[in-house]
């Protein structure tokens, strides 16, 4: 069996304001379910899913982060080592869309990617099932073109284009991995260590 057939571990992180649906988007993709009851993420949640990208088995480590200021100090350890960042906003909230620039800058500062000018960002507009939209697709696309990010919009509740956004994130993460791991070492890193804790249970 050739070495590359063993799973490659890729880290994808979801960031954005509280309440935009990051947890719902992740759970819809990994667990194929949605709940309408809101539970604020405390610190960070973690799920993993094995998929095939370009015929290579990949284990996606998906991190869902808290969108509140009191947990921003967790950004540095959580952001580092990411292969792709998904910026999530709520299409019915202009404030959540306007905040993406701050979230992106914070990620680049705290995450310290090796090549910040070419780090892959995927922008996701969630809650398209709602009628009170405040951010148009055109506005979102314009901003994404300016920062060089791919844009997807859909609904975790209705399961609209959730897989498509994560597939794009996985492909971008794999390219990032190959660029900074394969080319520097000459081989794929196979070991995929699971974090000791899947959730920060701090109640502070």
Report on this structure.
With 204 residues, the chain is α/β, with parallel strands linked by helices. It has one domain (5-185): Rossmann fold. It contains six helices and six strands. It has helices spanning 22-31, 75-79, 94-98, 100-111, 137-147, 162-185, and strands at 8-15, 44-53, 56-65, 84-90, 121-126, 150-153. A six-stranded mixed beta sheet has the order 2-3-1-4-5-6, sandwiched between helices. β2 and β3 form a beta hairpin. The chain is globular and about 45 Å long. The termini are far apart.
Summarize the structure.
The protein has helices spanning 22-31, 75-79, 94-98, 100-111, 137-147, 162-185; strands spanning 8-15, 44-53, 56-65, 84-90, 121-126, 150-153. The protein is of the alpha/beta class and 204 residues long. Strand 2 and strand 3 (56-65) form a beta hairpin.
Descriptive keywords:
alpha/beta, Rossmann fold, 204 residues
> How many strands appear in the DSSP assignment?
6
Distance between the termini: 49 Å
Element pattern in H and E: EHEEHEHHEHEH
* Count of individual domains: 1
Overall CATH architecture: 3-Layer(aba) Sandwich
Into which percentage range does the β-strand content fall?
A: 15-25%
Could you please say which CATH topology applies here?
A: Rossmann fold
- Low-pLDDT residue intervals, each spanning 5 or more residues: 183-191, 197-204
* Mean of pLDDT: 83
Number of helices: 6
Oligomer classification: single chain
What topology, given as strand order, has the largest sheet?
Answer: 2-3-1-4-5-6
Write the CATH homologous superfamily: P-loop containing nucleotide triphosphate hydrolases
Rg is 16 Å
């Amino acid at each position: 069996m050739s070495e590359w057939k063993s799973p490659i571990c890729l880290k994808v992180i979801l960031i954005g304001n509280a309440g935009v649906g990051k947890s719902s988007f992740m759970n819809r993709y990994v667990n194929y379910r949605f709940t309408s009851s809101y539970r604020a993420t405390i610190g960070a949640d973690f799920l993993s899913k094995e998929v095939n990208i370009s015929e290579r088995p990949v284990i996606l480590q998906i991190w869902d982060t808290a969108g509140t200021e009191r947990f921003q100090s967790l950004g540095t350890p959580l952001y580092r080592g990411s292969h792709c960042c998904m910026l999530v906003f709520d299409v019915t909230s202009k404030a959540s869309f306007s905040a993406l620039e701050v979230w992106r800058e914070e990620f680049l500062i705290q995450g310290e990617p090796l090549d910040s000018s070419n780090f892959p960002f995927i922008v996701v507009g969630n809650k398209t099932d709602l009628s009170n939209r405040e951010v148009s697709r055109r506005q979102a696309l314009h901003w994404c073109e300016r920062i060089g990010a791919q844009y997807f919009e859909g609904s975790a509740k209705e399961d609209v284009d959730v897989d498509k956004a994560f597939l794009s994130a996985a492909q971008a993460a794999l390219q990032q991995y190959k660029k900074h791991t394969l080319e520097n070492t000459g081989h794929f890193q196979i070991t995929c260590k699971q974090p000791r804790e899947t959730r920060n249970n701090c109640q502070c």
